[in-house]
Amino acid sequence: MATNIGMMDGAYFVGRSEILAWINSTLQLNLSKVEEACSGAVHCQLMDAAHPGMVPMHKVNFDAKSEYDMIQNYKVLQDVFNKLKITKHIEVSKLVKGRPLDNLEFMQWMKRYCDSVSGGGHHNYNPMERREACKGGKDTSKKSAPPQSTRAAATSAPKSHHSRRGDAPPTAHSTAPPAKTAKPSPTISVSVYDQQITELKLTMDSLEKERDFYFAKLRDIEILCQSPNISNLPVIDAIKRILYAAEEDASIVEEAQAMLLNQGGVLSADVDEEHKMKSDSQKRKSIVNLEVDVAASATLSPRQRVSVDSDVHCSGSPLMTY
């Protein structure tokens, strides 16, 4: 039993015409578009056909027009999935919008699942009788059923033909070969085109998701670069240079790298200049201190010099020699 089907499975390459033919033959409906089943009632009855008696059909609403009523149908479907331990996720918010691609994908999954359960046949299932318990089910059956005048004409036409043929004598024209009927247009090419269209739509959907993902990432980077704490950093300027480039040009990256290298050279030069200034300042201080000491020594009297020398001698300085 297939509950989790990969996106590359053959089930997702079944055309719309085949899906519609399967729905209409299984449930005796007359749908012309897959998205007409967006209310969820058709899905519930398909599960009822695959698992008779499992779906509470009295809760299903075939007359659902608002999103609220449609969601109630999908709640019934989700309860059935839970009972059967089916892990398929139902994207209700997309299905109720009537988007063709989303409804087609989910219906493709439904067909694959129902075929795996029943083998593609529901011989003992009466869809019209089961729909009578649903809200709007009788009206749906009346709309899908062919008009009585058409059926009466179809049944009475052969009888009148036989009666006329029995009364009238055969003519020369009766032995003529029947006229060639127009051959039905081949459906193989149509199904192939439907398959290609579905595949292209799936590819487009995945590309749109990927585009939105990376756009969100770029937007996050832009917001981060606009932070006042780091907006003036050189690396932020380089990132903005790439981020806001109007044309695709390989030189943009080189220009951003050059901005970082140039800024790095300026910073190193500033550091060297500051270090040099500090060194010169220290040298000046040493020279000034030396000059002050010499000047102070020169202003002392001979008696003061002897006193200073005796103080140094008494202090036991290792610089004194005896």
**First-last Cα distance:** 110 Å
Structural class: mainly alpha
Integer average pLDDT = 76
Number of helices: 12
Strand content: under 5%
Helix content: 55-70%
Rg over alpha carbons? 45 Å
Strand segment tally: 0
Description:
The protein is built from 12 helices and no strands. With 322 residues, the chain is mostly helical. The termini are far apart. The model is unreliable at 147-174 and 317-322 (pLDDT under 50).
Describe the structure in brief.
This protein is mainly α and 322 residues long. It contains twelve helices and no strands.
Give me some keywords for this one.
single chain; 322 residues; 12 helices; disordered C terminus
Topology:
Blueprint: H1 16-27, H2 41-50, H3 67-83, H4 92-95, H5 100-118, H6 127-131, H7 137-144, H8 148-167, H9 188-225, H10 234-243, H11 251-299, H12 302-314
Helix pairs in contact: 2-3, 2-5, 10-11
